[in-house]
Amino acid sequence: MIKCKTSKEIGGMGHSKKRKEDARFIQGKGNYVDDVKLPGMLYMDIVRSPYAYAKIKNIDASAALAIPGVVAVVTGKDLEKYGLHWMPTLMSDTQMVLPTDTVMYQAQEVAAVIATSRYLARDGKEAVMVDYEPMTPVMDPFKALDEDAPVLRSDQEGKSDNHIWHWEVGDKEKTENVFNNADVVVKQQMHIPRIHVASIETCGCVASYNKVENHLTMYMTTQAPHAIRTVIALVAGHVGLTEEKIRVISPDIGGGFGGKVPVYPGYVIAIAVSFLTGAPIKWIEDRSENLQADSFARDYHITAEMAGTKDGKIQATRFKVLADHGYTDASANPSKFPTGLFSIGTGSYDYGASYMEADAVYTNKPPGGVAYRCSFRVTEAVHAIERMTDMFAKKVGKDPAQLRMENFIKKEDFPWASPTGWSYDSGDYHAGLQKAMDAIGYHDLRKEQIEMRKEGKKFLGIGISTFTEVVGAGPAKDFDILGIKMFDSAEIRVHPTGKAIARFGTKSQGQGHETTYAQIIAEELGIPMENIQIEEGDTDTAPYGLGTYASRSTPTAGAAAAMAARKLRDKAKKIAAHLLEVSEQDLEWEPGKFFVKGAPEKAKTIQEIVFAAYTNHPEGMEGGFEATHYYDPPNLTFPSGAYICVAEVDAETCDIKVRRFVAIDDCGNIINPMIVQGQVHGGLTQGIAPAMYEELIYDESGNILNGTFMDYLVPTAVESPNWETGHTVTPAPHHPIGAKGVGESPTVGAPPAIVNAIVDAVAHLGIKHLEIPVTPFKLFKELQKVGYFKKNA
Amino acid sequence: MTKKITLKINGTEHTMEVEPRMLLVHAIRENVSLTGTHIGCDTSSCGACTILIDGKSAKSCTVLAVQAQGKEIATVEGLATAEGLHPIQEGFHLNHALHCGFCTPGMMMRAIELLEKNPNPTEEEIRWGISGNLCRCTGYNNIVKAIEWTSAKMQGKDLPSTEPEFV
Ligand code: FES
Ligand code: FES
Hints:
heterodimer, A: Aldehyde Oxidoreductase, domain 4, Aldehyde Oxidoreductase, domain 4, 3 domains, seven-stranded mixed β-sheet, globular, B: alpha+beta, Ubiquitin-like (UB roll), DNA polymerase, domain 1, 2 domains, five-stranded mixed β-sheet, binds FE2/S2 (inorganic) cluster
């Protein structure tokens, strides 16, 4: 049970308050970007390339322009006149807005059609004739590095290959030494495939430029409205659109998961067209466009190794990564972290040697490298370490739970310095795993597994993942995006009657900020959360912040809310002392009021104090009751979890079923248990998705084979099992409210638990590893390879 | 070439000129400005656009506006009445069955028909029953719970707890 310091009426931390934002969503009154309708608005549709790699010989728009209602067709050559045909990516690479001569991936934007209706824009799109000269694309990231591979980015001066960058961390020599002298080494090549966040709302915008005022209002699906405003100013400043003339409004967002962090060409084209025509331009992408052209996630090829003693002590890890970035590095990472926070991959275990390296390459695939509900490449890292831990346990013949228990970093050893340079803040890994094992009945399951193997109809597997996440980017000294430090902000205004509005630089996409931020402020000030209005997503009104992704909202903006509220509480104390005619030292705080020590009847409620701030404040004190805080975290936060999956494999059909899944998370102090649990449920379904269903598949010619919802398998309620969740609470010692962030932990932690369970189910048949997504067909083929069906024929 | 049609949505008639190719979802969202019905795909896979046509749930991106002439259409905007929220709306809110809210209107419209046909569905029947509607946020646990709660509510039975349960 979570102990609450505030009453249910105040509704501070720990209360499962129902969500304030629900009212509009359940009544169809949300305001998503496609709901925005402005007078004189035109619609934009985008002509896309059928080829993965081709020269554009000619674009003939005459037939399109002949359609009544088609207003304009915009090509790269048109944008080139204004220097708007290329734009920077968040990783300081460059990306085409519209191509002038070459397309680099299938579904790349080639031209934009503007018309008076959605349907006419589509008609125009069909009528634009593009003459292509197809070339052989580079689809295999390993072959991209071959000497005779065509140099894809010949636009970059002096570029002679497809290599983007090399990265490494850890002590190479020390790690090599350990490996050379180790009793046991396990090694596995694995691919974390390309997947897509596929939020149910696709991306889109309404760009509305007012010529008279030289002012742009941009309604768009963005998780980071302030950063986007700065990026727009950087791209369009030279045509007179400077930052004070830009207002970005991020209305209700239908799910983000990382896919709504980048700037897509569609947004920029819409802005350019609105700028040129003076009309508001609406662009809403189709699902297929969304899957085929928007940022992908993952696509890491990893060679993972683990070394240890024969009695099961982990001694070292070594990871080598090849990252397929598509035709440009458009990852949404902090600038100094080309592989994101991949170096968390040493895991939850106590050992001192690790070395990781990564190389990134260009291919003819869409750009991206966004997270998929994950803090910058943590999922890839966790998959590698948790698979290796299981393989190591199998190799030394130890139960995987037992081996983890013996290798965990101990509770008393935090803060713990990882061999790749992190300082883990806190954790109690033993308690988490024990709780998960008790909840699922681990030892009984092991017995049942033996029984079922004897029976031979179905094989039972039990898979564990005990992961450590790293979220809440991040400390300004290391973390920036395009040079902008990754702090976040909160501004609280309390009105004379004691009700408040608070604004933030983050942007909820379903996480429930309108409820949880209000609870944080309620906790600190004792004002009922119902009386605190939360606003985000309008750059004209909210303080600057870097937005919501990487589970950073609670660690950064949530902390900012607490800090701003504490500034107000300090002021409240001064006012209370003045009203009660005592000194500040004589006052004590209890949620909602200050009272005189030893005389609790002498008290002033927060509402009385706030009223006095406007009507009767001490001389020399500024009036009003408002505060702003920009929070620069001293460290990241390190949530952890212990997940156990029980899977059943049908011995004949290879059908795989998740029978049970227990997830014990530790995200530090909990603001709203109901919302945390909801986040975990959702994240787990986005964990089973890549583990068993999702992968973007391309053929050798660069065609995407499953670019629609007909064949890209987002789990339904049938594939998604009933999740069982719980928690341990180890507060983040350096965080004002001890919270760590949770939205992504389950997506990070679930895939290896599921794969470990499936591998465990068939391990006795000779299977050592399975690549994700583990489908029945893939499993069938692997079992065929080890001769299983022959034996059973 | 356009056609004049009258759509009866949530009890109100709306007459409009539409092209025969116009999808019902666009007529509802754009011509009638009822934007609670959403669009999440172009292959009739996601269910964000689910409405009721003559009481049956239908994906309104799969129906032409002209086909809906003369039929009774119900959308999320018509669920709440002067007496308050529809039980399914209450069920979704109290059981935290929505995060971003984008799938929610379609999910609720589908659940209404499901409960009409089968007032006491099992968990498995609910899961299969909403398998034409995708939710990317919630992991479905609480949607199932919300539909179970609504089932109890609609039949005047004891209401299950809406507090989160932990292991
Ligand atoms: S919009 Fe996806 S099914 Fe209708
Ligand atoms: S609540 Fe976001 S898609 Fe269901």
